[in-house]
Amino acid sequence: MKILVMGLPGSGKTYLAERLAKKIDCGWFNADTLRGMVKDWDFSEEGRVRQSQRMSTFADFEESHDRNIICDFICPTEETRREFDADVVVWVNTIKKGRFQNTNNVFVPPKKYDFEVTQKLSDDEISQLAKDIIDKGTV
Question: Could you give the C-alpha distances from 38 to 12, 34, 50, 51, 74, in angstroms and in order?
């Protein structure tokens, strides 16, 4: 199962994804870590699509080896979300503007998602979200 944890910079995506990965017992890829590995800090429209494709490639590899994976990244547009093609989408909707104006300018709130997080979650709430994700999919 390919799980996307998405939202604006500073919304708590990485915090949540790291904890969910432990509770679901699955792999986890963080966008900044992957960008750093490939030294690609291009945030143009093309760069964002390329990053989504890159995240999808890593996640698809894990899925092809029967491993579940969580990826956390901004995924700011319908196109980047379509490129990633998640089985489960968790939208971390805790802030109205992120710290990067260029991202705020292109970010389109998702029309389709499985779970919306509107505040920082307690450990018990993260456990419940993990259970809900497991119940929704095939983890």
Answer: 24, 6, 12, 10, 18
Indicate the SS3 state at residue 7: coil
Model confidence pLDDT, tens digit, residues 77-105: 999 999 999 999 999 999 999 999 999 99
Give backbone dihedrals phi and psi of 65, rounded to 5 degrees, phi first. Answer: -105, 25
Residues of the chain scoring pLDDT < 70: 138-139
Q: H helices within 28-122, ranges in order?
A: 31-38, 45-64, 78-84, 101-106
Q: Which residues pair with 116 in a beta bridge?
A: 91
Give dist(CA 45, CA 34) in Å, integer.
18
Distance CA 72, CA 49 (A): 15
Query: According to the model, what pLDDT value does residue 121 have?
Result: 96
Q: Are 113 and 91 contacting, i.e. CB atoms less than 8 angstroms apart?
A: yes
Which H helix or E strand runs over 139?
A: none
pTM beyond 0.85: yes
Place of tokens 């904890």: 19
**Three-class SS state of 117:** strand
